[in-house]
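Fig. S4 source data, part A: sequence.
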Amino acid sequence: MKTYHINKIITSLLVIFTMVGCEGNLEPVTYNQLSPSNFPKNVEDVRTAVTGCYSKMGNYHIPNWKNRLIMNTATTDEFTCFWGHWSWENYSKFLWNSSSESVISPYTEYVQAHTICINTIERIKQVSMNEELKHRYIAEIHGLISMISYTLYDFYGPVPLVTDTKITMNPNTTFLPQRPTQEWMIKYIEDNAKLAIDGTPKIYAESDFGRVTQGTAQMVLLKLYMHEKMWEKANTVADKITDLGVYQLQNSYKSIFSIANEQNSEIIWAIPQNISDMFNQWLAHVLPSPYVSPQGIPVQKWGGYKVPWDMYNKFEERVDERLSCLWRYINTNDGILDLKTSNEDWAKLGAIPVKYDEDPASTGLAHGNDLVVYRYAEVLLSKAEALNEMNGLNQVSVDLVNQIRNRAKATPITIDMFADKDQFNNYILDERFRELFCEGARREDLIRHGKYVEKAIERGAVDVNDNYNLFPIPQSARDENPQINQNPGY
């Protein structure tokens, strides 16, 4: 277990003061008793303020990260849940509406986070300090803005983000903006990502792991360009990430997420965790009650999240080492239990996505494994897809996919296995599932391939169409600002 400086600042200070308003369903928020008159004054204050912006990205039990992961996973075919709570059917059968908490929370949290970020930049500009370091801190925040803005755009389409600090720093201002154009939103994400690329380093010292790097910001651009099917731009950015010379595949798939191998060179961005305050609780959500840790670690077991068996069957069983993170078999007091042949209702639902291993220091719920958000394997798969879309079926794309499969000890593919680019594109979609399951990529991938709603209908959703590729704007935001028009179909 490692405890990073970035965690300590977030949790010990509850960090940054700012007033948030004017962006829909938002009340003034005070994060501590500091005020604009006394904060920030010096370089340490600035560092604290910047780290406060990172705290809005959150950890597993803070809504931001969890909402992003769950909405991109639980609404897809790679996820099912044993818990009978209505919210899981709400996700899987597309039953949400503009008043659903699952829709409201991410919108509110990320719009607030955006305002905190731009206000922090404005305050940092007024501080007398080393200009090079000031530029880097501001660039880091621009990187966070690009991530926040992309998530909002991916979930809701263009949203009315207020960028004028004369408005955002005055909680008494009444400002009712309309939704921007798609072109404006794309450019805003791009501009902030590029400012981050220009001002951040390739890599930090261990104590600053988790901060935005050039690779992090490039990854936001890659996600954006794949989302928009801007294949040439996606291909170019993928090459730029490779050319940084920082990232490479790990030899072992399981080791990517291991607490013993944190900060490994496959990770492009992760949210640091520890077992005392900002902690990873993924295992509690996935491990079933009969499971017994072979190491004797007293892990919490709620047994909810599963990967359906029809998705598990997309792997080469007993060959593909990625199944080391997707369990068919579990250790129990009575020996090894085969979930696929078990008569237990919870086992019939699917395999257990044990993406993170057990932390030897854990006392139950909390584990210290860093939460992996972006990693290099996705870069290779994105480049393969972009080249296939640009050039048709080609050997370079096949070789890129085989880099991923070879690491997993899966059977390599050959170009003559595919009739055309469309068949290969379908294969890439499956390979992205096999590589990135339960990492929050599936919803975007299915939408890009035109299969998101199709898969929902197969799971029992009714009266849905491609309008559901976007979530509805929360009604509470529209009540506060009638200028915000609703997404089609809601």
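Fig. S4 source data, part B ends here. Strands lie at 80-81, 267-271, 305-308, 326-327, 329-332, 335-338, 350-353, 371-375.
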